[in-house]
Amino acid sequence: MSLPDQPLSPLDGRYRAAVSALGDHLSEAGLNRARVRVEVEWLLYLTDRELFGSRRLDHEQARTLREFAADFGSEQIDRLATLEATTRHDVKAVEYLVREKLAELGLNSIAELTHFACTSEDINNLSYALTISAAVRDVWLPKFRAVIESLRGIAVRYRDVSMLSHTHGQPATPSTMGKEFAVVVYRLERILAQIEATEYLGKFSGATGTFAAHLAAEPGLDWPAISQEFVTSLGLTWNPLTTQIESHDWQAELYSRISHANRVLHNLCTDVWTYISMGYFRQIPQPGATGSSTMPHKINPIRFENAEANLELSSALLDSLGATLVTSRLQRDLTDSTTQRNVGVALGHSLLALDNIERGLTEIDLDEAALAADLDSNWEVLGEAIQTVIRAEVAAGRSSIADPYAILKELTRGKRVGQAELVEFIDGLDIGDEAKARLRVLTPAGYAGLASDLVRYVEK
């Protein structure tokens, strides 16, 4: 027995609640709404300037046409499906839909200005730029910023909590948990600024980017200036030199930046997962949640694992989009048509990951006692401090030790060394009394340098 119609993608099924806001922009309906808007705005542009014998529409007529585009909904979706079943062309169906509205308003006299001198890509590239920019600015970026703010809060909260670092998975010079989260915030804020500065380009120059049809219809007009004015009136950046398609370089740049953000967040997830496994973070039990189907004691770090997987899927798609979209055979091929329809899927997996990270960060709590115990079990990490102080003493003429690094390596490498052993070692060193005094009171927890102060670089 066949199942009733089911969503093929988990983004439209299991995870719909977390990503549905993207559908308002990057679904087929969202694209068609933008197409109607572009067709209507071009029509109004031409009539506002009374080109080709047209007259300026009155305020109510213009308002009705713009509302028709803005209120695009189920009725228009169904009608477009019917029209496209005949036209077998999605943009032509949109043109006919607008023409039907003009007829309804008694505006048949300007019907031939619908889609005037346009190739489908003139409408499509502007529509994609509008929908992608709205999806990024109104949906993805707010969630991305929210995650950054959550991380900033953790960085500030734990700025003074010393922790044992692990370079190559081995005990290393201590830091603070706050400073480690501040590193992630700083990385993400750089990428955020780059994404916020994205230019969303548009072209409006005809079948091969030459304005040939425009010039044939009216040789006396400055068509590049008209094109620029129209594109920028939509809030986009004008691209003056293209083939039939806008070259999609801005999309490749944007997707590269979002993919970069994904990978930094992936790094965060693997680190938090590891800190949880080390006992640095406790997971806060969620009412009614089951960690394992057979082991009742378990709380699994599923938020971060889910985020990892979705970040990987998103970056794979975004990388593919960026690589594919910048290539078009000669003046036009249609590889970008199917490709661009997957932008929502790529951003959807990233958005789902952001949602999981944001929620996951509220479900962990730092176990400061565990961090302190780990530090107290690894006094050998002070070997770096001791040998560096010896070097300074040698340079200052207060010590004759020949190879400070070698003697500390002999003392600490691959060994557990406690406080007593280190103090005894320090007392026997050929260094000044002031240097000895500083080293005697040094502890692993106190050997975090300026870690706490460095958090100021991400404070607001």
Automatic annotation (TrEMBL):
What is the protein name given in its UniProt record? Adenylosuccinate lyase
**InterPro entries, sorted:** Fumarase/histidase_N (IPR024083), Fumarate_lyase_CS (IPR020557), Fumarate_lyase_fam (IPR000362), Fumarate_lyase_N (IPR022761), L-Aspartase-like (IPR008948), PurB_bact (IPR047136), PurB_C (IPR013539)
What are the GO MF terms of this UniProt record? lyase activity
Q: Which organism is it from?
A: Antiquaquibacter soli
Keywords carried by this UniProt record: Lyase, Purine biosynthesis
Span of domain Fumarate lyase N-terminal: 59-307
Q: Where is the Adenylosuccinate lyase PurB C-terminal domain?
A: 328-447
- Pathway in which the depicted protein is active: Purine metabolism; IMP biosynthesis via de novo pathway; 5-amino-1-(5-phospho-D-ribosyl)imidazole-4-carboxamide from 5-amino-1-(5-phospho-D-ribosyl)imidazole-4-carboxylate: step 2/2; Purine metabolism; AMP biosynthesis via de novo pathway; AMP from IMP: step 2/2
Main function: Catalyzes two reactions in de novo purine nucleotide biosynthesis. Catalyzes the breakdown of 5-aminoimidazole- (N-succinylocarboxamide) ribotide (SAICAR or 2-[5-amino-1-(5-phospho-beta-D-ribosyl)imidazole-4-carboxamido]succinate) to 5-aminoimidazole-4-carboxamide ribotide (AICAR or 5-amino-1-(5-phospho-beta-D-ribosyl)imidazole-4-carboxamide) and fumarate, and of adenylosuccinate (ADS or N(6)-(1,2-dicarboxyethyl)-AMP) to adenosine monophosphate (AMP) and fumarate.
| Lineage of the species this protein comes from | Bacteria, Bacillati, Actinomycetota, Actinomycetes, Micrococcales
State the top-level EC class: lyase
Q: What is its EC number?
A: 4.3.2.2
